[in-house]
Amino acid sequence: MATDRVLVFDTTLRDGEQSPGVRLSVQEKLEIGRGLVAMGVDVIEAGFPISSPGDFEAVETLAKNLKGVTICALTRARDKDIDVAAEAVKAAESPRIHTGLGVSDNHLQFKLRMSRDEALATGVAAVKHARQYTDNIEYFMEDSGRADRDYVYRVAEGVIAAGATTVNVPDTTGYAYPEEYRSLIAGIMENVPNSDKAVFSCHCHNDLGMATANTLAGVLGGARQVEVTVNGIGERAGNTSLEEVVMALQIRADYFHVKTGIDSTRLLPMSRLVAKLTGMMVQRNKAVVGANAYAHSSGIHQDGVLKERSTYEIIDPRLVGAEKSEIILTARSGRHGLRHRLAEMGFNFTEERFELLYEEFLRMADTKHEVVEEDLRTLVG
Ligand code: KIV
Ligand code: ZN
User: Fold this and answer.
1) 3-class SS of residue 357
2) CA-CA to 307 of 20 to 30 Å: which in 22, 24, 194, 377?
């Protein structure tokens, strides 16, 4: 089976920065942007230029300074937004304008107060307006996850005919389940007559904890762009996590038959940088980049991993930029783990002496969350 390329569209600086409590300066955005380019993302959504002078400046700065990547700016389906966004990205090597409008009846009725036909006409007009600045136009069909399918097909057909080259299918509220989202993407590709003229993009939110699963399902349905954020930061429960999707596609290439252009060894340093600059700490058990992701504490697991890493690890930690797997000593650890850690510290004992130490170790471990190197030194006296 042919291996397709999936484009990675990073929206850490736009949707990610919309996380409550997060504010990044222009310099911080540039630092993250440089890291994203080095990591190999295809598109950076740098901001929403009309929203504030600071956001305009950030988008413009990234457009001027970052090479080898598409710089994208978000707009509503309004001429003024589009004009401002076009100005902000105009210096980019490859500028993109990302415009769009809601498609669910909920958004049409309560937010936009428009009929379906009015919203479609507004979206088509926005794409035509944006086309005077660039032919790299992405259209977002907001809240596609809760929208009527036939209407979604009509909108996709209309905006592609007007010149959109990427069509974003957001599950804005994190409502969809993987099979639904896969069939939404597949349905668009099958039922929209001009679907071969656009790339379809997954943009998922994590309200029900499904963002990564839905994005991967969208890829199975035929989408060839994924919209993600570092550490999955974003509105409410967040967006799809970049590192989870990239590693799932890499580790399960046998299943997905696609590849990205990401250098996975940069994932952990990038995760740490974004956590530091945003103040959004990563939970210890977070997939791929959490502090515990390559740490083993139970005796059975330690024994397996020390004999052969693949017994309990499907990702070699070096693939994501981590140094190595860790053996964490707790009251659940066994002799093999303790001996390994002592040997790492340069200690080797006779069997008899080791047995005595192991008993002392267990007594100590019962009183602590973790037995650390300092404790081991106390133990060996
Ligand atoms: O979640 C969403 O629908 C969005 C769009 C603005 C792309 O972030
Ligand atoms: Zn979003």
Assistant:
1) helix
2) 377
Q: What is the pLDDT of residues 264-306, one digit of tens each?
A: 999 999 999 999 999 999 999 999 999 999 999 999 999 999 9
Nearest listed ligand to the Cα of residue 232 = 2
Nearest bound ligand to the CA of residue 168: 1
Q: Report residues whose beta carbon is within 6 angstroms of any ligand 1 atom.
A: 15, 140, 142, 168, 170, 172, 203, 205
Q: What number does CATH give the domain 295-380?
A: 1.10.238
- Distance in Å, CA 172 to ligand 2 centroid: 5
Mutate to test the pocket of ligand 1, among 14, 15, 138 (most ligand atoms within 8 A of CB): 15
Rounded CA separation 366/38 (Å) = 45
Task: For the chain, report the end-to-end CA distance as a whole number of angstroms.
Answer: 60
Q: Which residue, judged by its Cα, is nearest atom 1 of ligand 1?
A: 172
- Cα separation, 213 vs 181, whole angstroms: 9
Q: Tell me which amino acid residue 139 is.
A: Y
Domain with CATH 1.10.238 in the chain: 295-380
For the stretch 75-126, pLDDT in tens is 999 999 999 999 999 999 999 999 999 999 999 999 999 999 999 999 999 9
